Amino acid sequence: MVDYSVWDHIEVSDDEDETHPNIDTASLFRWRHQARVERMEQFQKEKEELDRSCRECKRKVLECQRKLKELEVAEDESSKAELERLQAEAQQLRKEERSWEQKLEEKYLSDNAHLVCEETANYLVIWCIDLEVEEKCALMEQVAHQTIVMQFILELAKSLKVDPRACFRQFFTKIKTADHQYMEGFNDELEAFKERVRGRAKLRIEKAMKEYEEEERKKRLGPGGLDPVEVYESLPEELQKCFDVKDVQMLQDAISKMDPNDAKYHMQRCIDSGLWVPNSKSSEAKEGEEAGPGDPLLETVKPDEKDVSA
């Protein structure tokens, strides 16, 4: 049964509010609409500023990482000291980068509070798996972080017994000042989630490959419903060589030296899989009969009348 109480706190558009009969409703709606437009423009400006700050922080991190790689090959004392300084700087920049990303996440959810829900968390999980399957690993890790953020918000809402939209700001306030234990739990959950995503993506790829291989196998099936690849691999080595070189006479010589029952068994499987296609005239004359040593089906076939292939 659908729990409609989750919609109790949805913000209703101010254009639908009831007004006092003495108030000029049209003018009031125009004013409210203008105020909302200005508010949205202000939000957009703030978001653009956050985006610029985050991009600049990422640029500094990349530059610092480049310098670190250059210094890692050096062995003199001054280079080691500079390396330690850059390592500390890189660590600080990563913290700043994470801080800006959190501000962007909070800003985005503030502007789109309706997305703070279980459905969004489920969507993000599926998206992560899709990205991993597509080998977009960097983007997967970014979305994985957003997924765990959403999960923590939902868990916080459950513990407080409130709508998730009413407490997501509390989560961001908490994580900004979180102690080591809380952050360690968050990061452990994030890493465990990414491993689960990689595992699910691997299973999905394996399933897709099996389905593709099965489709290809069905396409290969001969008139008797056998797979020519499987039949070829089951043949004795001397028969395999005949198909490798596409030599009909060599094939007839080989089966003449075999036990008649074995020869009949293998050649019938070759026909059923399409590895061996008897000539049309002989096929019509011998329709419904099994092929074997001494059978005119094989003895009267000329090399140019038969496609012997693996």
TrEMBL record:
Domain Cdc37 C-terminal: 220-310
Molecular-function GO terms, alphabetical: heat shock protein binding; protein kinase binding; protein-folding chaperone binding; unfolded protein binding
Keywords (A to Z) from UniProt: Cell cycle, Cell division, Chaperone, Coiled coil, Cytoplasm
InterPro entries, A to Z: Cdc37 (IPR004918), Cdc37_C (IPR013873), Cdc37_Hsp90-bd (IPR013874), Cdc37_Hsp90-bd_sf (IPR038189), Cdc37_N_dom (IPR013855)
GO CC, alphabetical: cytoplasm
Any GO BP: protein stabilization
Chief location bin: cytoplasm
Subcellular location: Cytoplasm
Ranges of residues in domain Cdc37 Hsp90 binding: 78-216
Coiled-coil residues: 40-103
All residue ranges annotated as the Cdc37 N-terminal domain in the record: 1-121
Top-rank taxon: Eukaryota
Chain segments carrying region Disordered: 278-310
Segments of skewed composition (Basic and acidic residues): 301-310
SUPFAM superfamilies hit by this protein: Hsp90 co-chaperone CDC37
Complex and partners: Forms a complex composed of chaperones HSP90 and HSP70, co-chaperones STIP1/HOP, CDC37, PPP5C, PTGES3/p23, TSC1 and client protein TSC2. Forms a complex composed of chaperones HSP90 and HSP70, co-chaperones CDC37, PPP5C, TSC1 and client protein TSC2, CDK4, AKT, RAF1 and NR3C1; this complex does not contain co-chaperones STIP1/HOP and PTGES3/p23. Forms a complex with Hsp90/HSP90AB1 and CDK6. Interacts with HSP90AA1. Interacts with AR, CDK4, CDK6 and EIF2AK1. Interacts with RB1. Interacts with KSR1. Interacts with FLCN, FNIP1 and FNIP2.
Function, in words: Co-chaperone that binds to numerous kinases and promotes their interaction with the Hsp90 complex, resulting in stabilization and promotion of their activity.
Family from the record: Belongs to the CDC37 family.
Descriptive protein name: Hsp90 co-chaperone Cdc37
